[in-house]
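User: Predict the structure for this protein chain, please.
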Amino acid sequence: MASVLLVDTYSLFFRAFFALPPMSTTAGEPTSAIYGFSVLLLKVLREQRPTGVAFALDAPERTFRHHSYAGYKGHRARVPDALAAQLARLNQLLDAWGLPVFSAPGFEADDVIATLAKSLSAQGMPSVVISGDRDLFQVIDAHVHVLFVGARGRDPALYDVGAVERRFQIEPKQLPSWVALVGDPSDNLPGVPGIGPRTASALIRRFGSASNLLDHLAEVSPVKIRESLIAHAEQIRLTEGLARLRTDVPLGEGVAAGALSSSSFSRVRDLFVVLEFKSLLARLASLETTLRESP
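Assistant: Here is the predicted structure, written as structure tokens:
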């Protein structure tokens, strides 16, 4: 059954920039991020043939996580000038596709995607999230899969419930509790000293969640682990809340995803010409033909 494609836009855009060597037009405009993003999107659209597509963006405002924890993502470096210079072109590309774009002040794109995926599932509509962010693994269920874009040179990997359970030894919905114990360096979330991934998985499997674990610390052994959990209980509760994606983001009324049209391809083609993406014009035409011939 065909699915709706939910795109974690900035995750893929930034990943493309750091994965590719510098590129520019003959006039000197940098284009590596927009090119890499376009290559991946065309590939996924051809392979997935989604019934609809929606893009999620981070809003420019600070999120509720920043207000709850001053150190949230505080270690991240400033966006390189060559990447920032391509953001306007990214917005033009999204406009050209003519598909819904969602963001909400105070929330991250991950929260937006989690909300969209939950809404689609409630309607019996399957969805595929495409992202390079493991935080989104927690939204996976019987109706939601994640197409994870990992290291450079590796093909995206499709994660379902079984894949998450094999990798982490817990259910997708338990991942925020797991992060509360091991931390997440990419978001500058601290872990609990002395607790590694395997121990964290064993604890969450046994107690179900970080909150329930803290309610039953007397049952935890060895003593050294119990004492570390006691000493970091407040941190664990905070981190679990930060790691858990929101599924109640106010996105307003309207269509959750849109379908591609002939006018979409025409506008994208024109932008590719401006950006001198000659190699992508044939791929775009092939995608249009493929989607037109799909049942």
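The chain has two domains: 4-168+246-288, 172-243.
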